[in-house]
Design a protein that fits this description.
16% helix; 3-stranded antiparallel sheet; 46% strand; binds flavin mononucleotide; 164 residues; alpha+beta; 7-stranded antiparallel sheet; single chain
Length: 164
């Protein structure tokens, strides 16, 4: 039983894979920008390295590609509004009314995020419609809390432990 790997088959299989949710921020010519993104992964702990995949049609793409910095903010379950805000609901003035700080690169570190990796881009690879940015973390931090998850097209609270 197999299906050809069409774009729609690809998407419907991918719905079965749960992920966390990040808001990846950047800063270009003093202007901050953010994008909700679940294509985020750990690459290596030494040196500390992560990757993100960004659609080259997204506004955020040029911010990251040109500034060569980004901060991956890991969202907590109670930050679902931020996930929605940065997934296209607010095209301009994205950071009005929300608090943020900066770490090393200057990319926004969102207040109350569960954790963050502030990164310098070391590689960009084109892959289909997206670019894979590999970033070295120059600062990171985390707090206790419950992560926001994304699965089957919906946001979830990923705080339930099923292991003993
Ligand atoms: C849960 C979730 C995960 C997403 N993951 C990604 C992703 O990994 N890469 C990406 O390019 N867009 C992703 N998107 C879509 C972007 O958030 C969306 O296209 C956004 O409007 C792009 O904003 P921009 O054009 O202002 O940069 C995701 C959206 C949601 C809701």
């Amino acid at each position: 039983m197999s299906e050809p790997a069409s774009t729609s088959a690809f998407k419907s299989v991918m719905r079965h894979f749960p992920t966390g949710v990040t808001v990846v921020t950047s800063l270009r010519e003093g202007e901050p920008r953010g994008i909700t993104l679940n294509a985020f992964a750990s690459v290596s702990a030494d040196p500390p390295t992560v990757l993100i995949c960004v659609n080259r049609e997204a506004r955020s793409y040029l911010y990251i590609s040109e500034s060569r910095i980004f901060c991956a903010n890991l969202l907590a379950a109670e930050q679902i509004d931020l996930a929605r805000r940065f997934s296209g609901m607010m095209r301009e003035h994205q950071f009005d009314d929300i608090g943020y700080d900066t770490a090393v690169t200057g990319a926004p570190v969102l207040r109350n995020a569960l954790g963050y990796f502030d990164c310098e881009v070391v590689h960009e690879h084109h892959a289909g419609s997206h670019s894979i940015f590999v970033g070295t973390a120059v600062a990171c931090n985390a707090r206790e809390g419950t992560p926001l998850g994304y699965y089957n097209g919906s946001f979830h609270d990923f705080g339930i432990k099923v292991d003993s």
